[in-house]
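Narrative summary of target 7.
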Amino acid sequence: MRYLSEWVLLLAMVFILLPSSAIAQDLTAIQESLNYGAKVAPQDIDEGQALSPFYIGPEFAFVDLNNNGIIEPEEPVYVHIDPTIPRVSENDVRITPFGYFSPGSKVEATDPDHGKEIKKFGIGRFPAAELRYFDVDGDKAYSIQDPVYLDLNPGFVTAGDVRITGYESYAAGTRVRDSDQDSDKPTLTLPGMLSFYNTDGNINNGGWAIYSSDDRIYVDTQYPFYSVTPNDIRMSS
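Modeled conformation, tokenized:
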């Protein structure tokens, strides 16, 4: 009888542990799907969430670390939230690594890149930068399998471009090299705009949503706009 009781107890523990393991795996998968550069898929946890426009539209910008007037592969690129401020600011989003900070991370006031002078693309000798995609299947329509780039030579994927989403073995946030498989691929303009999910619901006196550190940024790519839909891109972790 004692042995039967022990087996019953053991089986009960197994049934308790299995769901816990499955739940942990599901939570890990959900977290990974919400990372920077991941596209929204049908029935994702954030699909359908309302998005808000920025009061001032963010811009892509970078830090010219050696002040030579040229953007180089090791120089970090950001979603610069307030273009009226000429320096890396709190809650800007890194879209390439900076030191040990990963793509998709947000700048905090104590971070070493906070306060560094920031340069806009398309000014002086600096190249223009556009969000564009490689039309993998050639159907002339943006879809979930199409990789997206911050294209510094609009029209083709070239060395120095930033992968906004991953492509094959190349991760989101990496820079393209001449020898990479996606180098020289043609690109098309990505429809959409940068918006954010207003986590805490804060608004200013003018009725505009206030972007803060807990808010997730998206490239809002298709109708209905201002709503998270499949093919939208998560731009912050």
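Residues 130 and 179 are 22 Å apart (CA to CA).
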